[in-house]
Amino acid sequence: MEHRIHILIKADGKMSSRAVFLYKRKTRALISSLLRKICSIGDTYEQHKENLNYKSFLDIQLKLVKRIMETERRITKLRTEKPNDLDEIEETKQRRKLLKLLGTTIAWMMLEFDRSYIRNFARGHAPGFIIGKKGFELELLALKTAFEFRNSAAVLHDITNCLLIGDLSVVSPKGILTLELKLKKEKKKADRRERRQKRKAKIIREFYDKGISTKIIPGLKSIRHISEKRDKHNWNELSTVIAEAFKNGYGISIVEKCCIYCAFKNDGPIDKVISYVELFKDPCFMFGCHDRHIDPGLPSMMPFTCFEIPFSYKEKLLFREINFCIMIDVNSLRRIIQENGYNCRITKSSDGLILEVSSITREKEYVQISEGLIGRLLYECLSVETFINYIKEVLEKLTKSEI
């Protein structure tokens, strides 16, 4: 009788068991199913503004909680019983990352893409495992209770990568309320972590209400800015490059003079992509790879699962069938800013390039463009037009705050 052993060979030459392969395939089916449910509710800004009925999101969050806890138990068990089975451990960790990315997607949608809120609540430490967390039953109860009220809903922070302070964000027509839930005995003093979390939440709430703060980033003035115009993104250009990569193995396009979009298949002609990228070794080029939406995760950036692109393209990015990156020619970007009537200069620090702008009338008072805004060009396909509008509106708001 013939016995066959099924072995898969990875791209790096390592061998992986059929069990890992099957687990990976089940992960894909699970994640695709949940993402499809999320996107079916509507994944554009206008769709959410017209509809505050988020009842469907409670069921999805509870499913995410269940699945995340399952993966955490599996990771713990594998680390104990099979510490040398690195492939199996890594594949389970990968499922958890994808589940958390779906939780982040829900957070962005339910919080109405309120970037200022999300960005500031992303300034914290990544939470640990849900399993074994004290008081988690109380958080689940609060989550379910929030959906009982008319036009109200809630997001559980522990299933996201972007809400790192507090336990729950309650959404209603009156705004967003952040809750920190603790089970503790009377008269017991809060520990150091609780005090730190409470202090951070208070600073953010004041910033959220007043629109300006010098405490969010000590030494710098932070402005809570909501653009009067809807953001524009290069979704069509992104989709075109992905389609080209899926057809020919790679796709490259120069977008808006200063941005280069690049997509390629994992099994595509990577040498052509590398040879093209090597043309831009100038230190005034910035690079952003969309793999970072998943690993290690960009807490203050809109995940590509919220992008207005075909669902199949989201899947290709999610499961790394297609890789996508953006390159920015900073010198070209500077010229575009200057053509729009602003002074602009590039300085360097140990962390990289810094872009600073000022109005013509106040040319000596340069304002540093935040990493978040640059990051949106690199990771959200933001249009340069919207980028310039933000610069204009922020400079105007800073001027008014000084009057």
What topology emerges from the helices and strands here?
Elements: E1 7-9, E2 15-17, H1 18-40, H2 45-49, H3 55-81, H4 86-110, H5 115-121, H6 136-146, E3 153-156, E4 168-172, E5 175-179, H7 192-210, E6 212-213, E7 222-223, H8 235-248, E8 250-255, E9 259-265, H9 270-277, E10 285-289, H10 311-318, E11 322-329, H11 330-339, E12 342-349, E13 352-359, E14 367-368, H12 371-379, H13 384-402
Helix pairs in contact: 1-4, 3-4
* Average residue-wise pLDDT: 81
* Number of continuous helical runs: 13
Poorly predicted ranges = 1-15
Estimated share of beta-strand residues: 15-25%
Order of the strands making up the biggest sheet: 8-9-11-10
Indicate the radius of gyration in whole angstroms.
23 Å
Oligomer: single chain
The percentage helix is 40-55%
Q: How would you portray this structure in words?
A:
- The longest helix is centred in the first third of the chain and has 27 residues, at 55-81.
- The chain is α+β, with helices and mostly antiparallel strands and 403 residues long.
- It has helices spanning 18-40, 45-49, 55-81, 86-110, 115-121, 136-146, 192-210, 235-248, 270-277, 311-318, 330-339, 371-379, 384-402; strands at 7-9, 15-17, 153-156, 168-172, 175-179, 212-213, 222-223, 250-255, 259-265, 285-289, 322-329, 342-349, 352-359, 367-368.
- The chain has a four-stranded antiparallel β-sheet, sandwiched between helices.
- Helix content is 46%, strand content 17%.
- The protein has two domains: 17-181, no CATH class; 235-402, no CATH class.
